[in-house]
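agent> fetching stored inputs for the guanosine-5'-diphosphate docking request
agent> found them:
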Amino acid sequence: MKILALAGGVGGAKLAHGLAQVLPPQDLTIVVNTGDDFEHFGLSISPDLDTVCYTLAGLANPQTGWGLAGESWTALEQAKQLGAPGWFNLGDRDLGTHLERTRRLRDGEALSAITADFCSAWGIGPQVLPMSDQPVRTMVRTADGRELAFQNYFVELRCEPQVRGFRFAGIEAAQPAPGLLEAAAAADLVVLCPSNPWVSIAPILGLPGLPAALAAKPVLAVSPIIGGQALKGPAAKMFSELGIAPSALAVAEYYGELLTGLVLDTLDADQQEALRELGIISLATASIMQDPADRARLAAEVLEFGQSLLTHA
Ligand code: GDP
Ligand code: CA
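agent> prediction call returned; pasting tokens
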């Protein structure tokens, strides 16, 4: 069964790692949000792409979910001592990734080609695609009338401003990365990882041509909202500030027509009836991924659920 998985950073990476454990590498393509990408210290930084790749390579910091395990911070400490901004954490080894990515981008290479080479250097089997080679930048509109670049909202301001909406600057001119529409066409099942719907999955779905490529496919989402809360990050806060009570059901309603089925936590099993009324079939299971074994178990359940959809379709 060929799978196309859509992922943001920490939540997406965990399920992507589960899928990578249970599928042959040639059957899995992971497309990653680049709306979080930004330039800092003159470097091109792709936080979600790096989180997914570090996780798949077994290099991620298990405590944070982002960054590298066993990281040191000497370069940033030195820069801070000289007056540099310190709000974005850049570890020494991680800096090496950004240096090399930036060097190659400056030489005119495509982000997708650079990512493919990094993946082979890291021994990553499945195909990992940045969503586009053209820059897309998530902008956050706030209640006090500002429009903030995503990392300023997310890291510098710790998601404190109230959100009113989002804009994905550059999306109209962005093309799906080379191979993405082909992977969509070849997929038997599309999986929306338990990533932030508003700022991790929406930019990918906003790419010209992608919704049409997915329209005829069975699409399963894993809810990032459990018991009305996000495990981490502002997903639930965003739903609330946009006037929607956060829930697994709200995630399904957000994805709307695109969605065939939802995997939600057993804690939210009482929402399955309402989902059925919406025409969304669902699977309730333990959906918190604490360790690599949890990821593989949840991924296997998602695939089994997907398989049952295919056979009943
Ligand atoms: P970011 O780009 O690093 O913010 O990460 P994502 O957008 O990929 O994922 C953020 C979402 O992942 C949050 O809304 C979390 O609730 C969700 N999440 C994190 N870990 C888990 C998990 O183990 N299970 C589920 N179901 N959701 C998770
Ligand atoms: Ca992200």
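agent> quick read of the result: Residues 292-312 form the longest helix (21 residues).
agent> awaiting further instructions
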